[in-house]
């Protein structure tokens, strides 16, 4: 294969007949990841939401929870498909968020610590409820672990975890 071919440094993806070639991105000297960016890709986002809704049809959950930012369109589309509300865990605290809960996570793409916040309004919306954690990609599981920590702090029960793609060691995600 010719190294200048756009598919040479990419990973193929097919979701419900929608095909993409995900570019590979070097995040460490010995680690490259396929980059899935659904921002602005309505066709892929809708296909993924429809597929996840089918897989989650028999799971009892009340609220969809996602982390800012690239998975927000997926959470929105899944909310529309499922008829359930969604909550976004934010990466920056704003004063209007009230007494927000927070926890830290390590970003695989930046290699830096990030903080996730659950604002007071959304905390009230999920407290005592069954939630589905949704992300675009689960790699190391660090964001997922932070989401689980916030759900425990908010006294919400994780009923499901869903992602468009997974990579890495699934044993680390629990």
From TrEMBL:
<dbReference type="GO" id="GO:0016757">
    <property type="term" value="F:glycosyltransferase activity"/>
</dbReference>
<dbReference type="InterPro" id="IPR029057">
    <property type="entry name" value="PRTase-like"/>
</dbReference>
<feature type="domain" description="Phosphoribosyltransferase">
    <location>
        <begin position="47"/>
        <end position="168"/>
    </location>
</feature>
<protein>
    <submittedName>
        <fullName>Adenine phosphoribosyltransferase</fullName>
    </submittedName>
</protein>
<keyword id="KW-0808">Transferase</keyword>
<dbReference type="Pfam" id="PF00156">
    <property type="entry name" value="Pribosyltran"/>
</dbReference>
<dbReference type="InterPro" id="IPR000836">
    <property type="entry name" value="PRTase_dom"/>
</dbReference>
<keyword id="KW-0328">Glycosyltransferase</keyword>
């Amino acid at each position: 294969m010719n190294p200048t071919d756009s598919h040479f440094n990419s990973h193929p993806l097919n979701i419900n007949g929608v095909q993409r070639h995900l570019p590979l991105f070097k995040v460490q000297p010995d680690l490259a990841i396929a980059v899935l960016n659904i921002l602005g890709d309505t066709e892929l986002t809708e296909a993924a939401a429809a597929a996840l809704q089918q897989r989650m049809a028999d799971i009892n959950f009340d609220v969809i929870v996602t982390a800012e930012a690239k998975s927000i369109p997926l959470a929105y589309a899944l909310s529309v498909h499922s008829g359930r509300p969604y909550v976004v865990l934010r990466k920056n605290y704003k004063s209007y968020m009230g007494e927000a809960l927070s926890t830290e996570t390590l970003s695989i793409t930046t290699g830096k610590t990030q903080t996730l916040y659950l604002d007071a309004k959304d905390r009230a919306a999920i407290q005592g409820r069954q939630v589905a954690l949704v992300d675009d990609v689960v790699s190391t599981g660090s964001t997922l672990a932070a989401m689980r920590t916030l759900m425990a702090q908010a006294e919400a029960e994780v009923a499901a975890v869903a992602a468009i793609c997974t990579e890495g060691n699934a044993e680390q995600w629990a």
